[in-house]
Design brief:
Length: 302
């Protein structure tokens, strides 16, 4: 809910959508921009499944960034259609678009995103990410010239999401494009997602990091109970898979894999929540949930 706060005439506020094909660094970019881990990150494509807003508040501006799933038309399952709708929805009622691509690389999936942006009225900034991985810098200028023919970009910014100075430059550019206005969220709010949602995501991140090759897109997590006490969070979660064989993989020999996933997730959650966490996880099967609209709804994909 927008807050009622008095600010000077120079205050700026607005919505900024971060879009791109899978695995170009959108979630890393969001986390760096708001200086807090809101969106989970793995090396596996399609880690992000929802539109996740991260809010950066400063004395004279507020930016509401939206991290989005990687847009692609290769797969046609229900969950992929859902993720593509999340991307399209993020492009409504916004002030700036950050189109993230990888330095000197362009794929068919990048064309899909560029086609989506042709009718967007908001200014589009092309963010050429992973500059730190580019060994031959002489390739950058010809690549930028090629990009200028793809779309009418308001700005083209090569950067590395890992470098603070690059992030600061991008933030200043975004602020300059925002309209004047009052803050859209309270100053101390950093995301529109609940702690329960983020807890589920932290657990899913650990599953994907450890088992992404065996279970690339077949895992989801729900929180069954979430209780906050004076000095402890008690979290009871279910990891959902599509097949019994997937369940065996996550549990592992004598439960070792599940214990390892839980231990790593608990450490991350304690850092995020700044409080001790008791975490209990179960693994259950929901047959073919990734292509079942009703099953997706029960897992939170509304």
């Amino acid at each position: 809910m927008p807050i009622k706060a008095e600010h000077g005439n120079g205050f700026r506020a607005g919505y900024v959508s971060i879009v791109g094909r899978p695995n170009v660094g959108k979630s890393t970019l969001l986390n760096r921009l708001i200086e807090q881990k809101i969106s989970i990150v793995t090396r596996k494509p399609q880690t992000t499944r929802w539109q996740i807003r991260g809010i950066k508040s400063a004395p004279d501006y507020q930016i509401v960034f939206s991290d989005t799933p990687g847009y692609q038309n290769t797969y046609k399952s229900a969950i992929n259609r859902y993720m593509n709708r999340e991307v399209v929805n993020s492009l409504a009622h916004l002030d700036v678009v950050l189109f993230v691509v990888e330095a000197v690389k362009w794929y068919r999936e990048d064309d899909f995103v560029a086609d989506l942006l042709k009718d967007v009225s908001a200014p589009v900034v092309l963010v050429i990410n992973k500059l730190d991985l580019l060994k031959d810098r002489t390739l950058l200028l010809p690549y930028i010239n090629t990009m200028q023919e793809k779309l009418s970009f308001a700005e083209i910014m090569p950067l590395s999401a890992r470098r603070r100075r690059d992030i600061s430059a991008l933030e200043r550019k975004v602020v300059s494009m925002l309209p004047a206005g009052e803050p859209l969220f309270p100053d101390d709010q950093v995301s529109d997602k609940s702690i329960r949602f983020l807890a589920a995501e932290y657990i899913r991140e650990k599953v994907m990091a450890k088992l992404g090759d065996e279970l690339p897109y077949r895992v989801s997590v729900t929180i069954d109970e979430f209780d906050e006490e004076t000095s402890l969070f008690s979290i009871f979660a279910t990891i959902w898979v599509e097949r019994r064989s997937h369940r065996s993989i996550i549990i592992g020999d004598r439960g070792k894999m599940l214990k390892s996933i839980g231990a790593e997730a608990r450490i991350e959650l304690e850092k995020f929540l700044a409080k001790k966490v008791y975490l209990q996880t179960w693994v259950k099967t929901k047959q073919s949930w990734t292509d079942d609209v009703n099953a997706l709804r029960t897992l939170g994909y509304d």
